[in-house]
Amino acid sequence: MTETVSAPTEATVLLVDDNPQNLKVLYETLKDKGYRLLIANDGEKALELAHRNHPEVILLDIMMPEMDGWQVCEQLKADPVTADSAVVFLSALDDVDAKVKGFALGGADYISKPFQAQEVIARVRTHARVIKLERQLQKRNRQLESDQSRILNAISEGIYGLDARGNIIFANPAAALITGYHADDLVGQNFFKLHFVDAPNPADSGEESLPVWMTCHQGVAEHERGVTMHRADGSTFAAEYRATPKLEGDNGKLRGAVVVFRDITAELENERALDEARELVQEQRDQLAHASRLSTMGEMAAGVAHEVNQPLTAITNYARVARRMMAAETLDKELLAETLGKIEAQSHRASEVIRRIRRFMKKPAAGKEVLSIPALLEDTRQFAEVDMRNNEGGIEITVADDVPEVLADPVQVQQVALNLIRNALEATRSAGAADPVQVSATMMGENCVRIEVTDHGIGLPEDAEEKLFLPFYTTKEDGMGIGLPMCRSLVQAQGGDIGFERQPEGGARFFFTLPVAAGSGASCVPASQDD
Ligand SMILES: Nc1ncnc2c1ncn2[C@@H]1O[C@H](COP(=O)(O)OP(=O)(O)OP(=O)(O)O)[C@@H](O)[C@H]1O
Ligand SMILES: [Mg+2]
């Protein structure tokens, strides 16, 4: 006899008794109480119904022919589908042993016959509610667990849960993949022994210094990069890890650590390659700058020859004068000394020119130094004026009183200033003008010095904004178009900025900035350009 009596509602209750009269009374007692009632009159049916309908509560008679209530209960508890139902025994047996046996078999409660209707109603209500809540809780737990394991499985970082001694109590699939172990083999192993103790340098493997040791033992969170970890096959890899202490209870007792780690071998390799590429670029930039300095010197060769020739001619003349003095009857020693002094001064002048050229052509550039702006500009002016083609109008320098020393490579800064001054002189000459080129230095903010080179020459071409700093852009017959691009690359290497302005009264103004030596160390490039 199987019967579904009332509409499916809050909970399902299965009534099991071999006596139809008893079943009727139970049914009458529980109907209209909001349950879905199922009825079975023997053990076999009870098991089948329970398996199929998953009732919250089973009211189970003990004394039944063929299969008694104990056996039914035993089988219900053995079947995972029915194991969580609350079995409430119903029996005339009212001795303690029977109750104990009932509980021992997994029964939840016991009602003695003849029963009170109110008691049955109250107990069924309580058990139905408890089982329902328990099932909801379990469902929620299962969901959380599967969410959690889905997340842990999907994460590409390795995750270990460690106890306070460093034994692995949890490992996600990525941890197994990274370390080359089977996930099952990891649990129970010791994290330190597994991944570190055989480290090739035994001096480094003092336990306190091991990664994650302090997290496990003192609750100190750790984050390290480039740690060497051992794989299952004995090979090693560079790892980055974060270890967080695992605290439990209100008093925050230390229970071990959670370690999140990943293999950064490829990342380190990329970084190294990037560093190498950067170095190469730097090297090539320096070489290009050097080549460009040599080319400038080539262009200035005639001027240099002239510049050296002047003192040499003077020396020859003074030497002749001196010889003549010595041939005279009375030797004017004072005059001779004065003449020799002039020879010395002229030879000094010649060697100054050569010193400047040698310094300018030196390779590689000297590196950053603390520089005095007035000295540097003066040196550059003398250098530029050597270029005979261009020294008609001359060069005027003004340096504001508050301009401090800057931190930059002297040769490279001189190269920039010289390029700009030569362009300005060339523009002036092309315009047939004789106005001097003005070079000025002022403070810009607290951390930068701004150097301007202003001319009254032919002015900038129309498409200057787009083209001026492009390599090989030139409007000159014998120009190469590498002066300005080179200036930009050199100024940027100093942490500075370069640009130009058109002059309302004609001519051009170029400027560049340099960081002051005692400044904040911030670059002088406007934020929008600093990429
Ligand atoms: N002060 C200036 N006034 C007018 N035009 C200028 C000035 N400075 C540069 N230019 C323009 O910018 C172009 C590029 O200058 P850049 O110094 O890069 O090359 P270049 O002077 O032509 O050749 P080089 O490589 O020998 O210096 C010049 O050809 C010129 O047209
Ligand atoms: Mg130029």
UniProtKB/TrEMBL annotation:
Catalytic reaction equation(s): ATP + protein L-histidine = ADP + protein N-phospho-L-histidine
Residues in PAS domain copies: 144-204
UniProt keyword terms in alphabetical order: Kinase, Phosphoprotein, Transferase
PAC domain ranges (all copies): 223-276
GO annotations of cellular component type: plasma membrane
Segments forming domain Histidine kinase: 303-518
PROSITE patterns, A to Z: HIS_KIN (PS50109), PAC (PS50113), PAS (PS50112), RESPONSE_REGULATORY (PS50110)
Post-translational modification 4-aspartylphosphate, affected residues: 61
One MF annotation (Gene Ontology) recorded for this entry: histidine phosphotransfer kinase activity
Location of the Response regulatory domain: 12-128
NCBIfam families: sensory_box
Name of the molecule in the record: histidine kinase
Species whose genome carries this gene: Marinobacter profundi
